[in-house]
Specification:
With 349 residues, the protein is of the alpha+beta class. Helix content is 47%, strand content 16%.
């Protein structure tokens, strides 16, 4: 057995939440898998409640037991099963990495260096483990650290043991009650194509604030409907700002991070499409979306400045900028879709 092993990882464009950041850190290491990645992550939805609001991508992810073609066959295991057959969780993780599997699980941040809960408070949270070092008795991992940024850390074998066994999920069906193993499926990833029509369909749904649930509703259990889809999220966030100013709710900074990340992802997608020869966005549309990304970044920074200073001027500036940004993005998307429709007509002629 090897005394040390590091599985390859890469920095993904999307790192707002673990249920995407972890498996994308694997997919971004592989050129075949990137065709699926850049064909998706276009539509957004908002769900949750006043106390736990979330803007998320409407794209399959293995944490929800949805199919990601490049990871087909990657197992999800119940904590109780692992605990029954592996008295030491560290041995299970080490053996999994030895076999080429990345491990993502829930562990108590009290034992995870660099996290907000480290040596401070109990906080069961997700962690992504991709390497081990027997000499130093440490695992290499990625997690959401004390600055709430996705980054790397190391965890000693004994501390990971305590972190895994140090809490109990509320019940066996709770999302913290599972451990996922990821491995690239060489056959399935090789047949994933970049899908321009699907990309444009998602973009149209996003622009029209239209629910994109025509496929997943076939196998999803009934749940509360999203509060908003696509560009309607801007209006909902403006309402949230107003309610926060009236001290009715707490305003989470993460939706504004996701909005900026979404624009960055769009621009990197356009560059990828051009490099690979799939489709070329016009210089005018490309510059238009780069401007949208810059505006979204400024909005994100205003949100962060507000929470660092509690100066209402930043909140007021953010509120003033949201709807103009929505209008700016809508115009760029309309241009993109018109250009695509024209390109199709030209091909038919």
């Amino acid at each position: 057995m090897a005394a040390r092993k590091l599985l390859p990882i890469a920095e993904p464009d999307i790192a707002s939440y673990g249920h995407f950041a972890f498996f994308l850190s694997v997919l971004y290491t592989d050129a075949d898998a990137m065709r699926w990645v850049y064909s998706n992550f276009v539509q957004l939805l908002m769900r949750g409640s006043d106390s736990d609001m979330m803007v998320d991508y409407y794209t399959s992810n293995p944490d929800d037991h949805h199919l990601v073609p490049s990871l087909a066959g990657s197992p999800r295991l119940a904590r109780k099963m692992i605990q029954r057959y592996f008295p030491r969780f560290a041995d299970f993780v080490r053996n999994s990495i030895e076999d080429g599997y990345y491990v993502t699980t829930f562990a108590d941040d009290f034992y995870i260096p660099g996290t907000v809960g480290y040596q401070n408070r109990s906080n069961p949270h997700s962690i992504f483990i991709y390497g081990f070092d027997d000499e130093n008795r440490t695992f290499h991992a990625s997690a959401f650290l004390s600055n709430q940024r996705y980054g790397g850390t190391t965890v000693c074998y004994d501390d990971l043991e305590k972190a895994f066994h140090g809490f109990e999920p509320p019940d066996e069906y709770h999302y913290t009650a599972y451990t996922h193993l990821y491995k690239l499926n060489e056959r399935r990833k090789s047949v994933c194509d970049f899908n321009v029509p699907w990309l444009m369909e998602q973009l149209e749904d996003y622009r029209l604030a239209k629910p994109s649930n025509r496929v997943q509703e076939l196998y999803e259990v009934s749940s509360s409907p999203p509060l908003a889809w696509g560009m309607d999220i801007y209006d909902f966030l403006l309402l949230q700002i107003e309610r926060h100013a009236a001290r009715e709710i707490y305003l989470d900074h993460r939706p504004f991070y996701v909005l900026w990340e979404h624009k960055r992802m769009m621009n990197r997608r356009f560059a990828y499409m051009e490099r690979q020869g799939y489709y070329v966005v016009s210089p005018e549309a490309a510059e238009g979306y780069r401007s949208v990304e810059r505006s979204a970044l400024l909005n994100r920074n205003l949100m962060l400045k507000y929470w660092m200073t509690l100066d209402n001027r930043y909140l007021e500036q953010l509120a003033e900028r949201l709807i103009p940004l929505k209008a700016e993005e809508a115009l760029v998307i309309e241009r993109l879709l018109d250009e695509y429709a024209t390109s199709l007509r030209t091909k038919e002629e």
